[in-house]
Amino acid sequence: IISSKTWLYDLFMDQEWLDTLHMEVGMFYLEVKGFNYKLTQTYSTVTPFFLECLKRHQDDIDKKIKTKEDVGSVSNLTAEVFGFARKCAFPWARSDFVYMPLNIGGHWVLLVLAVESKI
Question: Where would one find coiled-coil regions in this protein (predicted)?
């Protein structure tokens, strides 16, 4: 939820860092653009929370709380991969690239996963 009008101004000011909501909206925009314009190079996006959830799952594996095979039971992870997370989401298996925002110490980095072979 956008709480004030200044939220949009933060996108154009160099005094403020972008927050998670800015990245969420940016990823959604890319997703909708790819869906509506039927681009020849297909891509999918994930929410900023996807990598956080994946890291928590890996931490549980490291602590022997879960196994690698349990990742299929984490519905928000599998929904992202299979394209069920949002209306305009695209399955990774049919994508050329997957764009993933990653927050590293207050800075955002865009990770690009190149999908070599499609189903």
Answer: none
Rg (CA), the chain: 16
Strand 107-114 to strand 43-45: parallel, antiparallel, or no bridges (unpaired)?
A: unpaired
Per residue in 22-62, pLDDT tens? 788 888 888 888 888 878 888 999 988 888 888 888 888 88
Report the C-alpha gap between 33 and 27 in whole angstroms.
10
Tell me if residue 113 falls in helix, strand or coil.
strand
How many angstroms separate the CA atoms of 11 and 23, rounded? 10
74-115 confidence digits (pLDDT tens): 677 888 888 888 888 889 888 999 999 998 887 889 999 998
Let me know: does 81 contact 61? Beta carbons within 8 Å. no
**CA–CA dist 23, 110 (Å, integer):** 10
Beta carbons within 10 angstroms of residue 61's beta carbon: 15
